[in-house]
């Protein structure tokens, strides 16, 4: 320690006096941080995800700055040793006390990233709650549920408990209905298959799930290619099941259904079909855009990063003899356009995070008055983004 301090003193300007080593070390640390930020900025411009590395680098710089400041500030050698011992003791105590929670979640986060079973924008079902992943952190995973609420789950829970992930390539959409024993199962299966086709699902099939004491439980299932429209597809399938069963003359009433009014035996509990024009079902994902807005933006960022990586790989591939060379100018133009879309998507993601932080603050009277006038930066952002739509993952 003394030899290193003497080396720093030898290069420090004499006019700084005893504070020379401290100024030199802090200056070098500041220059290194500026260089590191520049490197991260270049990597971001090329579509790389540097969030976790940047967080780790900031932590390392802060700890290094604290230790170097104690080592170079002019003070008694015995006092310096006591301060360094105190810092080491505090760090050891913090690690020991948080080892069961923070370190456990940190190691679980590395495990989840290594397994890589889901990414931002994927549907995940945890503890019987369905949502879309909007953010993956070192200590937690955040997803939006079907009411657009943000749910934060520690990484340790995801490692210890099972969870279901909907594959991006497609999933099976199902709906169940209970019908009485007085209806022929073949008629029911035919009506359910018609409902599956009307819901625009592929490879439909019907299962008998349970033979209950009073009713039979049927499940209608079909393959959905667009996994991002899962919520709308489930609702659409249930609606088509209602329409198909009613059109087939099948009553959807429980065998326990009781009514004290005398009714004629030919009366059926099927609503009369209205002939007025009604809007078609939502097939464009409008419900998903509202419910999972933050997850949609995160998914767009992930998809754009994947596309940018594929384009870079295509540019770096060496063309063998006899093969037609790709149009490098077109690939570069597409890469530039995707990079701009990625920057816009990241800006939208930052706006979502800032909006969440703003809404989590206290709503005092002063804050309410300030909120009535938009900040200058937000107004400039809104003006610059007129006519632009957030990118969506295809």
From TrEMBL:
Residues 349-394 are annotated as: Disordered. Residues 102-161 form the Mechanosensitive ion channel MscS domain. The chain crosses the membrane at residues 15-35, 59-77, 83-103. It is a multi-pass membrane protein. Residues 363-381 have a biased composition (Acidic residues). It is found in: Cell inner membrane; Cell membrane. Gene3D superfamilies: 2.30.30.60, 3.30.70.100. Keywords: Cell inner membrane, Cell membrane, Ion channel, Ion transport, Membrane, Transmembrane, Transmembrane helix, Transport. Pfam families: MS_channel_2nd. Residues 349-360 have a biased composition (Basic and acidic residues). Homoheptamer. Mechanosensitive channel that participates in the regulation of osmotic pressure changes within the cell, opening in response to stretch forces in the membrane lipid bilayer, without the need for other proteins. Contributes to normal resistance to hypoosmotic shock. Forms an ion channel of 1.0 nanosiemens conductance with a slight preference for anions. Belongs to the MscS (TC 1.A.23) family. This is Small-conductance mechanosensitive channel. It comes from Zhongshania guokunii.
């Amino acid at each position: 320690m003394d030899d290193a301090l003497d080396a720093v003193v030898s290069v420090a300007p004499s006019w700084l006096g005893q504070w020379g080593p401290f100024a030199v070390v802090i200056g070098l640390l500041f220059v290194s941080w500026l260089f590191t930020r520049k490197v991260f900025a270049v990597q971001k411009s090329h579509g790389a995800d540097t969030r976790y590395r940047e967080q780790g680098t900031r932590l390392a710089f802060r700890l290094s700055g604290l230790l170097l400041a104690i080592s170079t500030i002019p003070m008694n050698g015995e006092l310096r040793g006591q301060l360094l011992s105190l810092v080491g003791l505090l760090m050891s105590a913090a690690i020991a006390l948080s080892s069961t929670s923070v370190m456990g979640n940190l190691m679980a986060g590395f495990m989840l990233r290594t397994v890589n079973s889901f990414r931002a924008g994927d549907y995940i079902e945890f503890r019987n709650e369905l949502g879309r992943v909007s953010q993956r952190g070192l200590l937690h995973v955040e997803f939006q549920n079907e009411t657009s609420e943000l749910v934060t789950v520690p990484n340790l829970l995801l490692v210890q408990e099972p969870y279901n992930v909907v594959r991006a390539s497609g999933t099976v959409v199902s709906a169940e209905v209970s019908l009485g024993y007085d209806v022929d199962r073949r008629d029911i299966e035919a009506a359910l298959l018609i409902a599956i086709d009307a819901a625009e699902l592929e490879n439909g099939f019907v299962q008998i799930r349970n033979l209950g004491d009073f009713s039979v439980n049927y499940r209608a299932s079909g393959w959905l290619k667009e996994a991002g429209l899962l919520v709308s597809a489930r609702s659409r399938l249930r609606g088509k099941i209602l329409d198909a069963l009613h059109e087939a003359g099948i009553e959807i009433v429980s065998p326990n259904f009781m009514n004290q009014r005398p009714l004629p035996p030919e009366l059926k509990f099927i609503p009369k079909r209205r002939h007025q024009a009604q809007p078609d079902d939502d097939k464009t994902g409008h419900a998903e855009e509202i419910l999972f807005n933050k997850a949609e933006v995160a998914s767009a960022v992930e998809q754009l990063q994947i596309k940018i990586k594929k384009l870079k790989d295509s540019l770096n591939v060496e063309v063998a003899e006899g093969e037609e060379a790709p149009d490098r100018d077109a690939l570069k133009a597409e890469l530039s356009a995707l990079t701009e879309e990625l920057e816009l998507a990241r800006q939208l993601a930052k706006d979502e995070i800032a909006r969440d932080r703003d809404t989590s603050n206290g709503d005092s009277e002063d804050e309410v008055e300030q909120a009535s006038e938009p900040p200058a930066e937000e107004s400039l952002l809104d003006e610059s983004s007129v006519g632009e739509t957030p990118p969506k993952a295809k």
